[in-house]
Amino acid sequence: MTSLTDAAGGGSARATGPVLVASDLDRTLIYSAAALALDMPDAQAPRLLCVEVYERKPLSYMTETAAVLLDRLARETVFVPTTTRTRAQYGRISLPGPAAPYAICANGGHILVDGVSDTDWHAQVLASLEAGCAPLAEVREHLVRTADPAWLLKERVAEDLFAYLVVDRALLPVTWVKDLAAWAEERGWTVSLQGRKIYAAPKPLTKSAAVAEIARRSGAREVLTAGDSLLDADLLLAGDRGWRPGHGELAETGWTAPQVTAVDRRGVAAGEEILRALLLAAVG
Predict the structure, then answer these.
(1) pTM attached to this predicted model
(2) Quick one: average pLDDT of 240-259?
(3) What is the pLDDT of the chain when averaged over all its residues?
(4) SS3 (DSSP) at 267
(5) Residue in 1, 3, 4 with CA at minimum distance from that of residue 218
(6) Where are the alpha helices (DSSP H) in the chain?
């Protein structure tokens, strides 16, 4: 299996370069109130730090201990937030520690360098999508036409790259997502169910491709990864070592790989455990 550092090219720089840590954010490092999974007595619950505000309301959290771990990790590695969020959605997050020199948004569609999208990379992504899969308009039309208003809450297009639905999970038919995935597979797209959101993304649009590019630019000697969903699987497979929490799409299907550690803990406690493992792997 080719790791991201292998894909980034040879040379002596990898032997002496930095460790690159590429981690998914939502339900991996940061958590909404609904995803915290605070299953302990109230008096034993961890202190939480709000890291995202939306429409003047707190939205996402991590434990205070996780915040300390992330601050140190970001100072000692090339830490790359790696998310399916759009650039605007990512901009609402205020992570502890120094500003990340690189970030990946829109599932690899944008590489941010000091907060600004790299236009050359984005053009390269657009060319690969045009050559390798059905157009977004066709997929969006299918989503809207087949979704039932009884459980469809919102329909959105992200960065003109992929589409997603916000649904009422309690009313969503079990077979609908499976049927959508089969339809999308034939057109070069993949489907992922994450919480209340159903994502349809082109297969060439990957986090791993963007991370490989950043590994090349930074001369990383090792790439560590973390993620919880189907859209993180390519990233976890391509890294030198990876971690996934005990919840999420990958955990629910029992997904694993030789270089990936499955963390037992769930919710915000899993985020803390993953950060502790990343820091130990990166700096000892």
Answers:
(1) 0.91
(2) 96
(3) 94
(4) coil
(5) 4
(6) 4-7, 13-16, 64-76, 87-91, 119-132, 136-146, 174-185, 207-218, 233-238, 249-252, 268-283
Q: First and final CA of the chain: distance in angstroms?
A: 25
Q: Which residue type sits at 193?
A: L
Stretch (H or E) spanning 58: strand 57-63
Contacts of 212 (CB under 8 A, 6+ apart): 4, 7, 8, 238
* Size of the chain in residues: 284
Could you tell me the sign of the dihedral formed by the alpha carbons of 70, 23, 90, 121, in that order? Answer: positive
How many CA within 13 A on the CB side of residue 264? Answer: 0
Phi, psi of 96 (to 5 degrees): -65, 155
Structure-token pair, residue 109: 């569609």
Nearest CA among 280, 276, 274 for reference residue 260:
274
Instruction: Please say whether the beta carbons of 107 and 197 come within 8 A.
Output: no
**Exposed/middle/buried for residue 131 (C-beta within 10 Å: 0-12, 13-18, 19+):** exposed
Q: Are 94 and 62 in contact (CB under 8 A)?
A: no
pLDDT tens, position by position, 99-135: 999 999 999 999 999 999 999 999 999 999 999 899 9
Q: How many helices (H) and strands (E) does the chain have?
A: 11, 15
